[in-house]
Amino acid sequence: MRAIPRRWFRRLRRGSTAFFRSGTRTRVVSTRPGQVSARCSRWFGDVAGSVDVAIRRFDHHPESLRIAGARVLVDGARLLRDLRNFLAGIHPDSPAYLHLPATVDALAHAKDPASSLATIAAPEVTAPTFCVGFQPTCSTVLNQGAYYSMLCRDIVPFADLGSLAGLAAGGSAWKTDYADGPYVDVCGAWAVSPAPESVTAPIVSDVPVLVYSGGFDPFVTTKVVREGIAGLPNAFVVAGRVQSHWVAGGLPPPCADDNSRNEFLADPTTAPNAQCQENFKPKFVSSPL
Fold first, then answer.
1. Residue at 193 is within a domain
2. Which of 8, 194, 213, 264 fits 222 for a cystine, CB–CB 3.0-4.6 Å?
3. Residue 51: is it exposed, middle or buried by C-beta count within 10 angstroms (0-12/13-18/19+)?
4. How many domains does the chain have?
């Protein structure tokens, strides 16, 4: 039921790079927020807009691919899930994410997007249930029964399910993925009682806490993370610029010596030095996956 924030893609517009198209190539120009030249502005690529274009494209014309011996039909809803999966599986020490803006552009506008589509869709073909878009793989200790119990006890009874269709803004892919989630239907047959309302109460504690957040996380933004820990006055947030949902998935190469965890454990009253990963500016490339 968690959605990939559309505003994440807009961050690419406001961040350290500007994307614009010239002919059939996607070029990259390093910029700073508010310093995009007039010439670049005329060619500035709207990555968030390209995501919507790509979703509509595959809604209208689903693509059938053969991946790992399996026939996969990719429509807009499937593409949206695969993009979420790709973002969640980003590893800062791998260069794949540097192709993301060009890949989104290819999915939206390329005459033949099959190569990029296969690359984005492939991981979901063999991934275990629930694991796609998290680590992105899980070990054998995952217990689906425990997952259903948590979902049906702690989440669904307190979720405003009626508002999801409105949040999907009429988009069929967004509605299919996030308003018509099939897992909620399990709760009609899963015999667990709703949890007390206290499970939704914010935690208040003065215990020092170190919280990691990833700039590429498709499930929750750093802004929401900070709002969520408002009751923890002694919490420190490390917001890795190119980390994702699995924040322990590595660091960008220039920041390999960062050790914020050990610094915090040595002195939990002082914010650890994480400037390298928080200020890291990736150099996106013009070739799609």
1. no
2. 213
3. buried
4. 3
Cis preceding-peptide flag for 196 (omega within 30 of 0): no
Say if residue 184 is in the same domain as residue 258. Answer: no
Structural domain range at position 247: 202-279
Q: Are 253 and 178 contained in the same domain?
A: no
Give the residue among 87, 105, 115, 192 at the shortest CA–CA distance from 147.
192
pLDDT in tens, 160-217: 878 877 887 778 888 888 887 777 888 888 989 999 999 988 889 999 999 999 998 9
Alpha-helix runs per DSSP H in the chain: 6-14, 38-43, 47-60, 76-88, 100-109, 114-126, 144-150, 164-167, 172-174, 222-228, 260-266, 275-279
Name residue 27's beta-bridge partners.
Answer: 20
The residues, any chain, with a CB within 8 Å of residue 196's CB and separated by 6 or more, are none
Same domain, 12 and 98: yes
Last residue of a domain, one of 136, 160, 188: 188
Query: Integer distance in angstroms from the first to the last C-alpha of the chain?
Result: 28
- What digits encode the pLDDT tens for the residues 108-157? 989 999 889 988 886 666 555 555 544 445 555 667 788 889 889 999 99
> Does this model's pTM top 0.85?
no
